Amino acid sequence: MSQSMIEQPNVIYLKDYEVPAFLVEQTELRFELEEDQALVRSQVRYARNPESSNRQHPLLLDGHESLELQRLSIDGEVLSEKDYRRVGEQLSIPNLPDHFTLECITRIEPQNNTALEGLYKSDGMFCTQCEAEGFRRITFYQDRPDVMALFETIVVADKQRYPVLLSNGNMVDAGDEDDGRHWVKWQDPFPKPAYLFALVAGDLECIDDRFTTASGRHVSLKIFAETKDLDKLDYAMTSLKQSMKWDEEVYGREYDLDIFMIVAVDFFNMGAMENKGLNIFNTSCVLAHPETTVDAGFQRVEAVVAHEYFHNWSGNRVTCRDWFQLSLKEGFTVFRDSQFSADMNSPTVKRIEDVALLRTAQFAEDAGPMAHPVRPASFIEISNFYTLTIYEKGCEVVRMLHTLLGAETFRKGSDLYFDRHDGQAVTTDDFVQAMADVSGRDLSRFKLWYSQSGTPQVSVTGEYDAEHQRYTLHMRQSCPATADMATKQPFLIPVAVGLLDAQGDDIPLTGGQTTEVLECVAAEQSFVFDNITVEPTPSLLRDFSAPVKLRFPYSREQLVFLMQHDSDGFNRWDAAQQLAVGIMSELVVDYQQGRTLVLDSALIEAYRQILNDASLDKAMVAKVLTLPSEAYLSELAEVIDVDAIHQVHRFVKDAIATALAPLFLQVYQANTSAEEYSPDATSVARRSLKNLALSYLMTTEQPEYLALALQQFKQADNMTDSQAALTLIAHSGFEAEAAEVLASFYQRWQSESLVVNQWLAVQASDPKPDALARVEALQQHEAYDASNPNKIRSLVSVFCAQNMQNFHNSDGSGYRFLADQIIVLNKQNPQIASRLLTPLTRWKKYSAEQGALMKAELQRINNSGDLSRDVFEVLSKSLA
Ligand code: PHE
Ligand code: ZN
């Protein structure tokens, strides 16, 4: 029997929360970094927690099997093995006084840490990742966010190899030792939980800048990277300064230390980490340069730099009581960074992108085996809960509060929240309470958004009474059962509504406003509008005012009308999406029943109108003319027919391209400019429209358009244009040219790791039938590194999550491939393994045969033995 079957991982429940038995006053750390080990000495001053009910409670320290305990002493007295107990990976020390200092020396092997949690090596440098529970891989500690302490850290290492030694807070002392080693001492004046601890040691260089806060404090800003990447840091620095200013202006939040540092590392499980004063970033989220980074990459850098910076208040100054409250910091911080990005770029485009992600991926999560509320009630492994629900839906929940309260009251609420809880570890209830207190509203029903999982559905119908000039909207809400929760109570759903007259103008509503926020709180509810002189067309859920699936029986004419006239930019886009979804869903049925596919000309005509409308923002045009993705169509489908969706998508795109080719060509040419590259919103918009036009043209597989794409590929002076052309050519049926551009691209960019990742991703997402063989071959390529999460994501994740028709090949080869990857990664890097599993977990949404093949692979992983907690949890929920 394998070990995992004997020791079933524990489920941890929110309802079992207890305050820590001891509080920490001060944590002093000393790291001796060497090539084959690190010695960590921690000296921690503990005091019994007056709020703990049990005065006899032992001290429970979290640890990990990889820790080698070398010495444990209390107030200078060494403990022997009978003085403490090992309970699983924890240490339990009984019979303690109310105040004492515990010294602990552990030996760890960062160079062998492939999980990338705790202290590990990335490309020759030491770095840490402690959220959520990585600190316990460094030393024995109460590794929980409600234990906050002042940290003092000394890092000792070889001076030549590791000239730069960093930790949180301010550098207070440094010195050389005789043996070629040196040390630096850091002090963090703000109490923090262990998950915000960070350390970096490496041969790094940095760019320097400074920022003066609103109150006149001078902050030194440093962004560190390897020398070769020093030229790719300017955009992150600009973004950082903009974020600092924005947070002062919009939230009244000032930075609080004398120094703020960012370090770029190549081996990282996630995007970035908000460690106090020392953010650590995946290179993919901080490096940017026109020659190597696409527009979306620039925007990602801007957003992630802002996100991590904003955590300094929403996360660090006020942190989470326990990990069930993860969305307290993540949902709020995503909301803050989304407001920031909206302010820096186009708000409508930002909203469209966020909603598209939510609707495809978060809604799918709700419909799958890992469904959970924004505040989960239980988990086995917290790393599995850094999800779209916690982040993106959590953001939507905060956004709804903002909508319900209005910007001004919301700001008062956030001020009160930061004020009231500064230096504390709190809950989502505390956050909502601050909003309730400033608004005087009872938000108890609203809080169901935190405790109930699932995507609510709202069905709306309209009724016009000409005689009384009255328009009524009838709403019904329900929420389907999710894997974790059978029944739900009605939510408080803010539905922002406008009514359009026959000309497409907004009809003034209550108080003359053109958009009114209706609050739907019951399973069935009606809303009456008086003095409506003609039957209106309703514009519903403007700006996507709630994370729900809203249905209204629009005719195609009404959708076209909304596309052309709605004053709400988001709903103009959404009308186009609904129009296309309706048409494509019918075509999927036609395809399944063997009928000839014919595209409703309404879609072509609507697209033609948009292309001819010079008044529209180019980024909006590009968004409106982008067909609903195959992933979105899959999410909407009852049973996913991958092949039908794929064929229909191709057919529709081709039919539009063929009908509108001259227009697309015009748009392409009109937006090809010789201007110098800039990642500003207007230029990004122009490129996105141009490359969308090229993608339609390339769908037709006409040699003249191939020539255009080849020309763009050769002449591009920026990665956005170069990669767009590369992808289109590589994915086309022009095989010789495809091979040629892929080879020349690699030749040109092989020394740029992030560009090589894009090159891998382009091949992994190739819809042509030989993609799997290609992916397997690329795993042997010199450019691949099976221990680097960014490489795994670019090749394996992209293939399994984005190359639908190849991953779901009916011979099961895609599933087998993924299971093989997971069996290896389960031991090497459980977090990545567990994330990679996602596509297989959705097996119930596919046909019986397809689902059986997927399930069989899940079972094979399950039988492979020694499952990590991460993989165990996802598997057991998927197979339940
Ligand atoms: N807290 C990080 C963020 O949201 C994400 C993260 C989680 C990074 C866990 C690493 C590990 O920005
Ligand atoms: Zn975050």
UniProtKB/TrEMBL annotation:
Aminopeptidase N-like N-terminal domain segment(s): 99-196
Boundaries of every Peptidase M1 membrane alanine aminopeptidase domain copy: 235-446
Cofactor: Zn(2+)
Keyword RNA-binding: no
Enzyme Commission number: 3.4.11.2
Boundaries of every Peptidase M1 alanyl aminopeptidase C-terminal domain copy: 557-880
Catalytic activity: Release of an N-terminal amino acid, Xaa-|-Yaa- from a peptide, amide or arylamide. Xaa is preferably Ala, but may be most amino acids including Pro (slow action). When a terminal hydrophobic residue is followed by a prolyl residue, the two may be released as an intact Xaa-Pro dipeptide
GO molecular function: alanyl aminopeptidase activity; metallopeptidase activity; zinc ion binding
Keywords: Aminopeptidase, Hydrolase, Metal-binding, Metalloprotease, Protease, Zinc
EC class of the enzyme, as a word: hydrolase
Record-annotated Peptidase M1 alanyl aminopeptidase Ig-like fold domain positions: 454-551
One BP term from GO: proteolysis
Keyword Coiled coil: no
Family matches, as InterPro entries: Aminopeptidase_N-like_N (IPR045357), Aminopeptidase_N-like_N_sf (IPR042097), PepN_Ig-like_sf (IPR038438), Peptidase_M1 (IPR001930), Peptidase_M1_dom (IPR014782), Peptidase_M1_pepN (IPR012779), Peptidase_M1_pepN_C (IPR024601), Peptidase_M1_pepN_C_sf (IPR037144)
NCBIfam families: pepN_proteo
Family according to the record: Belongs to the peptidase M1 family.
Known function: Aminopeptidase N is involved in the degradation of intracellular peptides generated by protein breakdown during normal growth as well as in response to nutrient starvation.
Protein name: Aminopeptidase N
